[in-house]
């Protein structure tokens, strides 16, 4: 496990990027965007109207994309 962490950390800290580092970054960004889409989409207004923004519908797809990117990045290591 330390070898995997060192491989990821080496690419990110020394700007020595390879494809695994790129997929880790894309997966992390997709996971953060999915979390934000889920949180902002589940709010309702005072009079119980549906939410104005419908980004929460994209949250499961973004999360699946993030998991796939991170799994592929581990495969590339």
Describe this structure in words.
This protein is mainly α. It has one domain (2-76). Helices cover 69% and strands 0% of the residues. It contains three helices and no strands. The protein has helices spanning 2-13, 19-41, 59-76. The longest helix is centred in the middle third of the chain and has 23 residues, at 19-41.
Give the helix tally. 3
* Helix fraction bin: 55-70%
Number of domains: 1
Overall, the morphology is elongated
Identify the notable features of this structure and list them briefly.
elongated, 77 residues, mainly alpha
Give a summary of the structure in a few sentences.
The protein has 77 residues and is mainly alpha-helical.
Topology diagram in text:
Layout lengths: L1 H12 L5 H23 L17 H18 L1
Helix pairs in contact: 2-3
């Amino acid at each position: 496990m330390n070898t995997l962490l060192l491989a990821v950390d080496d690419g990110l800290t020394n700007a020595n990027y390879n494809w695994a580092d790129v997929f880790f970054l894309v997966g992390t960004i997709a996971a953060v965007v999915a979390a934000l889409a889920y949180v902002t989409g589940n709010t309702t207004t005072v009079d119980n109207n549906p939410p104005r923004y419908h980004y929460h519908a994209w949250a499961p797809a973004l999360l699946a994309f993030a998991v796939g990117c991170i799994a592929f990045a581990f495969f590339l290591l």
